[in-house]
Design a protein that fits this description.
Layout lengths: L2 E2 L20 E2 L2 E2 L2 E9 L23 H7 L7 E3 L7 E8 L5 E5 L5 H8 L6 E11 L8 E8 L3 E6 L11 E2 L9 H4 L10 E5 L2 E11 L1 H4 L9 E10 L5 E8 L3 E2 L2 E2 L3 E7 L7 E7 L4 E4 L4 E3 L4 E10 L9 E10 L5 E9 L2 E2 L5 E7 L10 E8 L10 E2 L4 E5 L9 H4 L9 E4 L11 H20 L3 E2 L3 E6 L1 H12 L6 E5 L5 H4 L13 H9 L18 E6 L8 H14 L6 E5 L13 H11 L6 H7 L1 E5 L11 E6 L6 E8 L8 E7 L1 E6 L8 E4 L2 E5 L7 E8 L3 E7 L28 E5 L3 H18 L3 E5 H5 L12 E5 L19 E3 L4 E4 L2 E3 L5 E10 L2 E10 L2 H8 L13 E4 L3 H4 L6 E5 L5 E8 L3 E3 L8
Parallel strand pairs: 16-25, 28-31, 29-30, 29-32, 32-33, 33-34, 34-35, 39-41, 45-46, 45-47, 47-52
Antiparallel strand pairs: 1-2, 3-8, 4-6, 4-8, 5-6, 7-14, 8-13, 9-12, 9-14, 10-11, 10-13, 15-18, 16-17, 18-22, 19-21, 19-23, 20-22, 23-24, 26-27, 27-30, 36-38, 37-40, 38-39, 40-43, 41-42, 43-44, 48-49, 49-50, 50-56, 51-52, 51-53, 53-54, 54-55
GO biological process, one term: proteolysis
Organism: Kockovaella imperatae
Pfam families: Peptidase_S9
Length: 943
């Protein structure tokens, strides 16, 4: 056991119970021996819907499967079915953990080479279950002991007492599979555990730690043709003795240029141990040329880490000799009212315009009031070679460069990477080193970084271009394709280096274990939830965008065929065999110094500057097909945008052309739609003729003016057609421009901190804390935990005005609905008293049933999303909570109903799943329900 002495960082006055110097602490300890069962097959991104493979074989004693695995005697004669082992069964194995917490798990007796030759590298993915003994020392009269735990590169973990009663079902905690704990922000000023470790508290004693680990090709790479795939876990624990912890390693602070902070927001991490009290935190600085203050109190629950955001107000100039600014954080206990103060010395880095800079900003946009969803940052790389006048580069398009997975944008390898084309380069973080694969919130943050750069540059007297050249490498290369195809009007060109097509093509989903149990019709609906992120389906939007794809011919990470495939798809849409310039660099791997300065790239950029792009009118005349799956995350092409779809979950397309029509003096804009409900058209010079949509003339479009909205409808007495409308006459719930559209992953697209409202029971509170931690680690999303009572009083609806809401519990009623209002088909309602779930006019009785469902919020001027996570018992609630979106590539549409069979059948255990209609009612055509869902009759009875 390690002995450690710690001194508290708390300073100044304190009315809370605490000590400034802790006694010598006996640290938690894990035994070196780990007992493992596996390997079992693992489909790509199926881990959330699956549980332990052992759930298919519950013990005859009736014991809970997780408890049985934790406590059963080690017996090498025990076996479990697995297709990966000779004889079709796997048994116990043992592995030794090193002193630094590293645990490597590999199975040398498996013929991995044979599986690769049969099904490719996706077949190398596998999962294991491991257990090891955990010692949590403490005095008998001490109560719960607070500690921190890191599980790096592991999927999830749990703690089961060696003996005694366990509150079932066992609580599982997400691991840090991306190893954020090893990044600069994870390690800076950290102790034995990282800044992203989880805070827990248990009674002192002996426990069995359970771990579920997966070897995922996309994360850990191809081990090689003749090598054994190895799961490399790191497990570290550390006692947490402080009442409140200031995580200076997580601080986000901008550079200072010419005495001005290059950002209007900063943030600092604050952690409250699991044995602490819920607190409110406010902050204020002295005025030293700028003042810093929180815009509202930040509530932090026990066991939670939150980033406290402070608004920057410039009042003068920071003197060159200023190296820090002192901020006082006032911490007030919500339970007792006691207070304490923390002092944060903000480091100040003075930079010149010729240096690499850091700009901070509110993401995804500046809040109307209250704190932002998160404080983000982007690195700014000055032009190279340097222009004669650094303050005036308005004629040179700005590079927006998206980094690869696991890359921190301030790393020298990335800040030195942008093309030496004399342009400013914006290097956004995209939430985290992995983020959302440059989809969703990561994409929004990238666009906001580009916008904020222009704003901050203007504040220091620098004129930059409004034009953007999109660049990306690896995951960022895929991201470049994604952003370009969703917002073609925002860019002048795209350069994608070593970018893959889409996540399902990178590491195929062919090994999905759900396929062995689920109705293919259900799998089709689930897979449709990824349609908005399928780049290949959107490549029709790039026919007029200049593009270059570059790849190393020996790339062992992202095979070169990905770039070639994307080029061929775009070429087919454009009818031009040479539509995309593809550069295969002989002998080069996935990355090399100077990759983005290869001669073909610099020549491509130079040609862009001397080429006049097609006007919108010319594009419309030549014709194109506009593709869209989710209008909430898609922009316009040639000033035309698909703003709503008829059937959510299905692809929408719009054929655009300008042509002469008999009887019309001017050329007309002719549109043919597939699954399109609303179209936005921006008038342009040279296109003043009538608009024909699906063969029907609508009206004359003036050459100037605001965006025109056309909505399809079934008009009484006139049949189906299109009308030019004033959008204000229509319900805002149906307007996807306001972001009110699924799938479930869209809950992360919150303008403010996500509010997590939990039921009045310990299970719901535990889940709220677990989800808040996962949102912070995987997305840096700020979350505020409140009770359902607070939510029902509208005190936090939404908190501070702009946050999406996650509702957790076994019983929940929308605070906007009166007691006498019958829930609509879009409103799930549960009753834990009867152990039933009613949903969309159907009743489900099965034990362990859980529901996750997205729905809109319309509250005054606020438009947002709410995610219901409910269960008819604790098992159902835990299963439903597993589907709260944390990682990309997970196939969950607008709603899903889970059952205990999901733990071993995956999607085959779903009772139902689907999309809502455009008006948020039940969609018969894009939903699937099994026999467990019984229709409720009009009189309230059911059959």
């Amino acid at each position: 056991m390690r002995l450690r002495r710690r001194t508290s960082s708390i300073s100044l006055d304190s009315d809370l119970e605490m000590t400034t110097t802790e006694a010598v602490e006996v640290q938690p300890k894990l035994d070196a021996r780990w007992e493992v069962v596996g390997p079992f097959p693992a489909g790509m991104r199926e881990h959330t819907i699956f549980g332990s493979p052992l759930h298919a074989f519950p013990p005859s004693s009736g014991e809970d499967v997780d408890i049985d695995f934790a406590r059963r005697p080690f017996n090498t004669s025990d076996t479990w079915p697995s297709e990966l082992a000779v004889g079709g069964h796997v048994e116990w194995s043992t592995f030794e953990m090193e002193e630094d917490g590293k645990l490597d798990i590999a199975f040398h007796g498996i013929n991995w080479k044979q599986y690769r030759s049969d099904h490719g590298w996706a077949s190398l993915q596998h999962q294991v279950l491991a257990r090891g003994r955990f010692h949590l020392p403490g005095r008998p009269d001490e109560g719960d002991v607070a500690f921190k735990v890191d599980l790096l590169q592991g999927v999830e973990y749990a703690f089961v007492p060696v003996e005694g009663r366990v509150d079932l079902p066992v609580k599982w905690y997400q691991g840090d599979i991306y190893s954020f704990g090893t990044t600069p922000s994870g390690l800076k000023d950290a102790g034995q555990t990282s800044n992203y470790s989880r805070s827990l508290a248990f009674p002192p004693g002996e426990y069995i730690m359970l771990i579920r680990a997966i070897y995922e090709i996309r994360l850990f790479g191809d081990p090689g043709l003749d090598k054994v795939p190895t799961i490399n876990l790191t497990i570290r624990t550390e006692r947490q003795a402080q009442k409140v912890e200031l995580l200076t390693g997580l601080e986000i602070v901008p550079s200072v240029v010419e005495g001005r902070m290059m950002g209007h927001w900063i943030s600092i991490g604050v952690r409250v141990p699991a044995t602490g009290e819920n607190v409110d935190v406010t902050g204020l600085s002295e005025d030293q040329g700028c003042s810093l203050a929180t815009v509202s109190p930040t509530r932090i629950a026990s066991g939670q880490t939150r980033m406290v955001a402070l608004k920057v107000k410039t009042t003068g100039a920071l003197l060159p000799g200023t190296t820090s600014i002192s901020v006082t954080l006032q911490v007030r206990s919500i339970q007792t009212g006691g207070t304490e103060r923390l002092i944060w010395q903000i480091p100040i880095e003075h930079k010149s315009l010729a240096d690499v800079l850091k700009i901070t900003f509110a993401a995804p946009e500046e809040p109307i009031h209250g704190p932002p969803h998160s404080v983000a940052y982007t690195m700014i790389v000055p032009p190279s070679p340097a222009p004669s006048d650094l303050r005036n580069t308005a004629d040179i398009p700005v590079n927006l460069a998206l980094h690869g997975a696991g890359v921190t944008p301030e790393w020298e390898m990335w800040t030195s990477a942008p093309p030496k084309n004399g342009a400013w380069s914006v290097l956004p973080m995209g939430r985290t080193e992995w983020g959302e694969d440059w989809h969703g919130g990561s994409m929004a943050e990238a666009w906001r970084a580009r916008e904020v750069f222009g704003e901050m540059a203007a504040e220091v007297g620098v004129k930059v271009s409004e034009k953007t050249l999109l660049i990306g490498h690896s995951n960022g290369g895929q991201g470049a394709w994604h952003l370009a195809a969703r917002y073609p009007d925002r860019i002048i060109g795209v350069i994608a280096a070593a970018g893959y097509t889409k996540i399902q093509d990178y590491v195929p989903y062919t090994e999905s274990f759900s396929n062995h149990y689920a109705d293919p019709a259900l799998m089709g609906i689930l897979n449709s939830s990824l349609t908005p992120y399928n780049n290949d389906l959107h490549h029709s939007n790039l026919v007029y965008t200049p593009k270059l794809a570059l790849h190393g011919s020996a790339d062992g990470n992202v095979p070169p065929r990905h770039s070639r495939l994307q080029a061929s798809i775009i070429a087919a849409w454009s009818g031009d065999k040479d539509a995309v310039k593809v550069v295969d660099v002989p002998g080069k791997d996935h990355w090399w110094d100077g990759m983005l300065n290869e001669k073909p790239i610099l020549n491509f950029i130079q040609k862009l500057r001397h080429t006049t792009p097609l006007s919108w009118a010319e594009m419309r005349k030549k014709g194109f097909t506009l593709t869209c799956a989710n209008p909430a995350e898609s922009g316009s092409m040639a000033g035309i945008r698909i703003a709503d779809v008829l059937i959510p979950g299905r692809l929408a397309r719009l054929d655009v052309n300008t042509q002469s029509i008999p009887g019309q003096r001017d050329a007309c804009l002719v549109l043919l739609s597939t699954n399109v409900k609303r179209i936005e058209i921006t008038p342009v010079a040279g296109c003043s003729g009538k608009v024909f949509i699906d063969g029907v003339p609508v009206n004359v479009v003036p050459e100037t003016g605001s965006v025109h909205n056309y909505i399809s409808s079934d008009r009484p007495g006139r049949g189906f057609g299109w009308d030019l409308v004033d959008l204000s006459e229509h319900s805002p719930v149906c307007d996807s421009q306001l972001g009110l559209q699924g799938p479930v992953l869209r809950i992360l697209a919150s303008r403010g901190p996500i509010v997590i409202a939990h039921g009045n029971d310990d299970r719901s509170l535990s889940l709220a804390k677990r989800i808040a931690h996962d949102l912070f680690v995987y997305h840096r999303i700020d979350a505020e935990i409140i009770t359902s009572d607070e939510a029902s009083k509208n005190e936090y609806h939404p908190v501070s005005g702009q946050g999406n809401i996650i509702v957790l519990g076994k019983k929940w009623k929308d605070p906007d609905e009166s007691e006498s209002t019958r829930p609509s088909s879009a409103s799930p309602n549960t009753s834990s008293d009867e152990g039933l779930i009613t949903f969309a006019g159907r009743l489900i009785e099965e034990h362990g049933t859980g529901l996750i469902a997205l729905r809109p919020i319309v509250h005054g001027h606020f438009r947002g999303l709410q995610l219901h996570v409910v269960g008819n018992d604790d098992v159902g609630l835990e299963l439903a909570a597993r589907l709260v979106p944390i990682r990309t590539g997970v196939c969950i549409p607008d709603w899903a109903i889970v059952s205990p069979r999901c733990q071993w059948q995956g999607a085959g255990g779903l009772i139902g799943a689907g999309f809502w209609n455009a008006d948020w009612t039940f969609s018969e055509v894009m939903s699937w329900l099994d026999r467990s869902a019984t229709r409720v009759r009009a009189d309230g009875s059911y059959r």
